[in-house]
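Deviation from plan, reported transparently: s-citryldethia Coenzyme A complex.
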Amino acid sequence: SKGYFTYDPGFVSTAACESKITFIDGANGVLLHRGYPIDQLAEHSDYLETCYLLLNGELPNAEEKKSFVDMITNHTMVQESMARFFRGFHYNAHPMAMMCGAVGALSSFYHDSIDITNPEHRRISAHRLIAKMPTLAAMCYKHHIGQPFMYPNNKLGYAENFLHMMFGTPCDDPEVNPVLARAMDKIFLLHADHEQNASTSTVRLAGSSGANPFACIASGITALWGPAHGGANEAVLKMLDEIGDVSNIDKYVAKAKDKSDPFRLMGFGHRVYKNFDPRAKVMKESCDEVLRELGLENDPLLAIAKRLEEIALEDPYFVEKKLYPNVDFYSGIIMKAIGIPTDMFTVIFATGRTVGWIAHWSEMISETYKIGRPRQLYTGYDQRDFVPLDKR
Ligand code: SDX
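Because the crystal trials were delayed, the predicted structure below was used instead.
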């Protein structure tokens, strides 16, 4: 009834096992982080406070929160040689390709905190990763558009600093719109953790071999990239652009129901939720607020998305299959309105999800664990004798 399961350590891999971090009730659309509902955290908390909760199990008091925020702030800069590392990428490299490489390479710059048996090393690496992901994400974008990298400004909040590094330049440093900064913070928060999804399970499996935390998070970034997982937000925007007008929606819904057609309604359906993804509801409200703030409330993409949601929720196929909008359905519209290009959407997802990956990694290696070793159901040949070449 608590939503956890016991497992046979001798058989089921360590990667898929008990956890105290996040609870999902897919049938009723419930998502709890350490017992707190996601909609309450989105309304009353912020990303770094939620990071503290996921890592430590309790909401921080004022002193604990200030100390944690200061700790993260002190780690926002990356070693200057990371700039040369980025310049080695083709300018047109996909930002996710750069993130996979850059985060994996962090262990070569921060090898003073990769002894996973040392709790202090684990703590410092966790802070370094949460702090440096926005800096690295912004460096991907700046390299991609051929602009100079922006250093973090530690007088700014976490999400505000990210938008500063994304859109500021050494020539001018535009004020960050507080509504956009709050929306960005909420996007990070809504992506923070989601139980043992594909990328989190990848991180746990990598961690179970004793790999260093930077390598484990790089493995999570790689797994997140696919369009069935974290790449869906980019695919939703491409789909909405392709639909182009509300008059075309019925045609695309019909394609999505046609088993012979590979087309899927991106941003719909989920491995666990058979009801509304509670994050999608919060994202939709935030979408309205951001577009109103920017005078884009008549954004045609939003109109298509809302009409598509209405049609799909009444369509017998989607009702029968229990397909609802998920976290990726509205997030892309907000990010596009903020000015973030579509190929950066999954990088943003990875940045927000880093704390969830770290929390699960840390939970696993701070207890007794075995290397994950999923078994298979073998369906190949029975044993047979070798056939010499001249007899084949
Ligand atoms: C994320 O696991 C997590 O927690 C992930 C995540 C996180 O925070 O980490 O929540 C983030 O990955 C969200 C999902 C983002 N992906 C997309 O939006 C891509 C589009 N969605 C589909 O690819 C799909 O819904 C999946 C991959 C998400 C789930 O696919 P499943 O496991 O097949 O879903 P299902 O078992 O509920 O499907 C039931 C039926 C199937 O048809 P039948 O085999 O019964 O005939 O519905 C069909 C599916 O083929 N179906 C869809 C569909 N999604 C499922 N049909 C049309 N359009 C869709 N989007």
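The pocket of s-citryldethia Coenzyme A is lined by residues 194, 197, 228-229, 232, 256, 264-272, 321, 323, 326-328 (CB under 6 Å). We consider this an acceptable substitute for the interim report.
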